[in-house]
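Why show two proteins at once? Because comparison is the fastest way to build intuition. When a single record is shown, students tend to memorize it. When two are placed side by side, the eye starts asking what differs. So, the first record is below.
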Amino acid sequence: MPMGFCKNKYIREEELIFELLKIIDKVDMNELGILTRMEMEIERLNKFQNMVLGEKQPHKKHKPAVDMRVYARYVLKEGSSIEKRELLANLRSKIILKDKKLTLGNYDLSSSK
């Protein structure tokens, strides 16, 4: 069998996203990487509100508690292809695709680097 050949059947992006949503609560994530991305999005939203809508909001001194998994689900459902790719780059668990189903592998990818 040639190197790089995958025996799995084709899976549509929508199906893959659905499968990811089913396991996202169990996946080990690089929360710092996701938090950084989320803070950039909040800053972008604030700039939009200030520039386009003319809303002036004072900067809060404390940051609200953020559930990374809720943000991850949002990005998977509503994010652009680039945002989804960035999110997936911050997943540390080994994810296995077999028969159009995703499962978690038995080891952590971050420990294998």
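Second record. Ask yourself what differs from the first in the token line.
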Amino acid sequence: MKTNATPRTAFHTVRVTPAESGELIEQAHICGISVSALMRNRVLGHPTPKGAAPAVNLAAWRELAPTTANLNHIAHRLNLAAKLNEPSGVTFDDVMAAVIEVSNAVKKLRLGLIGAATAAT
């Protein structure tokens, strides 16, 4: 507690179901704060720490990394060629292959986020 903060002496009891209690505990844990601080921040409109990114977000981010690298490589070559007014060496087929790769990766990611089985792409 901050030394110059007003002490919190008022007490309020809130009834919740066991499931709601579990959810409050989980959300507070994710944010790295107590359940009391979570409820106080949310009810009073104060910012709540975001906590760590969910594991599914990190996994999806890692899965898309190679696709992102391919797109960046193609974009770099196209931009460099435009600056130098030279042929890029990137063909229409290269661009279409990258677009299809991104489309398939996004479809797979979206299906994975909702727990649906992914079809072969």
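One difference worth noting in the second protein: The radius of gyration is 24 Å.
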